[in-house]
């Protein structure tokens, strides 16, 4: 029997080795790219929440500032009777309502804050109604009658409740 010849051990042809190297590099790049994408997406989501929180905080501060301006224009009108104070009061009143609607939209993803917004809206509406009523009293009965409405405790209580509620909303957002 003729001797069996052993085949020499062959290595992969050069082209196969190059393709294997490129394939391994591609797998590493795709895996690294996927990890980088997930990290970028998590960063973007976090930044969006930070921006959202900042928007809510700005709107809460804006509501407080607008209510302060409203109160100032209201008193100015009742004390001086100047039409410009009444116009400023009416403009600020409209601004407050727009700010509250924007705030409502921003808080709709949070049930706890949405409930607080509903309470804030009710308190603000009651405040506006009270202030509007004293303006009507001024226009119908004169300054002395309207001044008596300024000394009533009801509107002070409403403003205090609004401040406390806004502070609670602010603390929730900052957590």
Overall geometry = rod-shaped
On the 0 to 100 scale, the average pLDDT is: 88
Portion of residues within helices? over 70%
**Tally of strands:** 0
Contiguous uncertain segments of 5+ residues: none
Question: In angstroms, what separates the terminal alpha carbons?
Answer: 89 Å
> What pattern of helices and strands is seen along the backbone?
HHHHH
Strand content: under 5%
Number of helices: 5
Largest beta-sheet characterization: none
Determine Rg (CA atoms, Å). Answer: 34 Å
- The helix-and-strand class reads mainly alpha
Which properties best describe this structure?
175 residues, mainly alpha
What does this structure look like?
- By secondary structure, the chain is mainly alpha-helical.
- The protein contains five helices and no strands.
- The protein has helices at residues 14-80, 83-107, 111-141, 143-150, 153-174.
- The longest helix is centred in the N-terminal third of the chain and has 67 residues, at 14-80.
- The radius of gyration is 34 Å and the shape is rod-shaped.
- It starts with 13 loop residues before the first helix and ends with a helix.
- 18% of the residues are buried.
- The model has no long low-confidence stretch (mean pLDDT 88).
């Amino acid at each position: 029997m003729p001797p069996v010849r052993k085949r020499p051990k062959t290595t992969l042809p050069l082209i196969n080795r190059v393709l294997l190297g490129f394939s391994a590099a591609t797998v590493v790049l795709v895996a690294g790219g996927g990890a980088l994408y997930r990290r970028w997406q998590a960063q973007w989501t976090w930044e969006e929440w930070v921006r959202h929180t900042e928007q809510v905080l700005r709107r809460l501060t804006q509501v407080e500032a607008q209510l302060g301006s409203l109160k100032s224009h209201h008193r100015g009108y009742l004390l001086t009777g100047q039409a410009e104070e009444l116009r400023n009061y009416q403009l600020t009143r409209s601004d407050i309502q727009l700010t509250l609607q924007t705030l409502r939209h921003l808080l709709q993803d949070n049930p706890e804050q949405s409930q607080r917004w509903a309470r804030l809206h009710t308190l603000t509406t009651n405040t506006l109604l009270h202030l509007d009523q004293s303006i009507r009293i001024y226009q119908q009965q004169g300054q002395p009658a309207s001044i008596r409405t300024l000394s009533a405790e009801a509107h002070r209580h409403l403003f205090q409740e609004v401040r406390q509620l806004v502070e609670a909303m602010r603390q929730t957002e900052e957590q």
